[in-house]
What does this fold into?
Amino acid sequence: KVKESWCATGHLSGIQIPTYWMCSLIDQCFCCTSNSRSYLATKSHGAAFSICYDLIHGHYHAWDREEGYRFADAVLQNKLPFICAKTEPEASYKVQFQILIPEDFKDIEVSLVYLTESFHYDEKGKILSEYQKISVQCNDDIVSAEIPQEACGYYFEFSGCVNKKRMFSSTAFVEMTRK
It folds into this structure.
């Protein structure tokens, strides 16, 4: 009953405007899995998502990044704000999906970020889980990758340069069931 009442993803169906979800892989307050679920619940209404692995929790740290301003401008201009997956990757060890790329993005990079153990924290709330990041080839707008067998979860990070500033976005975090 408590989860039903307080889990945000159960209350997002009424959102009718584009929403930008930004979180950190190392956030001790809000795990990227809950933010991913919120993003997926609002994606059909123009939501965008960024897992910024080095972002420190707090409004001031998010306001220092350019992505939020880029998102707001794109919404007002009815444009695509960031690189995004046309369809989100699924829990599979062989993944292929199409990405949408804004016209003004240059120098596109795609990375696979994965965890080899489930999220866990110390007594002060600091995340102890370690992640690996590897570069992935993108052919035009198709991303293909083999997820390492030791991965228990992953997401794809996209980046591109706009006016000499690198903008980051990502897919939702995918939780894997190990073989």
About this structure: The longest helix spans residues 32-42. The mean pLDDT is 85.
